[in-house]
Amino acid sequence: MAKKKIYEGKTKKLYETDNENELVIEFKNDVPCLDEESRITIRNKGAINNSISCHLFRYLSSYHITTHFIRQISNKEMLVKKLEMIPLQVITRNIASGNLVKRYGLEEGKELECPVIEFYLKSVQVEDPLINKDHIVAFGHASSDELKEIHRTSSKVNVILEDFFRRRKLRVIDFKLEFGRLGDRIVVGDELGFDNFTFLDLETNKKLSVESLSGEKEEMCKIYQKINELVMQ
Fold first, then answer.
1. 4-81 maps to which CATH number?
2. DSSP character for 32?
3. CA 161 – CA 52 distance, rounded (Å)
4. What is the DSSP string of 99-125?
5. Dist CA 135 CA 2 (whole Å)
6. Which neighbouring-strand residues pair with 23?
7. Full-model pTM
8. What is the pLDDT of residue 3?
9. CA gap 84, 95 in Å, rounded
10. Which fold has domain 84-215?
11. pLDDT of 77 strictly over 70
């Protein structure tokens, strides 16, 4: 499969293939950090995030959630459909934590009366600000109908993944999705690795996320491996 690199981010590389409608995502061993100087690399992290993403994309497909995933092609690579990506990060929150606590003064760990779905503009230049639906439509990033579909799909994915992880003794505190256009359809894109989630370990009552990890490479590696093992059960 011919490949030409077209993008490299903190945790992934993106390649064109000899099929103009398909791309290859290669997962890196780098752990996402707020600043490049504190970047951490751990062994097998790329393979683990690829494994988790591929499994969860297949699982969502079994519930008729349309995604860009085609198949896994190596331990660190997946083949996906080429999308016109919408520059939004869609965060679904089930439990008060992180930014929700900081912004609104909620108690850490408070169970929300209903899930909260937030939109963040994906932009390094302005540091991914929280925006509302009016902003998104006014700026031309998505239409009202597209946002309704994004919201509906995010809600459905939340129900599916909440049940999936609860059976593995994990509670989904929050998670991130990204979406793109495939013709006239809105589909789930990007990845679904551990980097996208914040969990509550129901056996230890500890929060598990990239931000909560201590920075000790061996400990971080164990957490990534644990999540992968649970997903594959």
1. 3.30.200.20
2. P
3. 13
4. HHHHHH-PPTTPEEEEEEEEEEE--TT
5. 39
6. 16, 80
7. 0.94
8. 81
9. 31
10. D-amino Acid Aminotransferase; Chain A, domain 1 (3.30.470)
11. yes
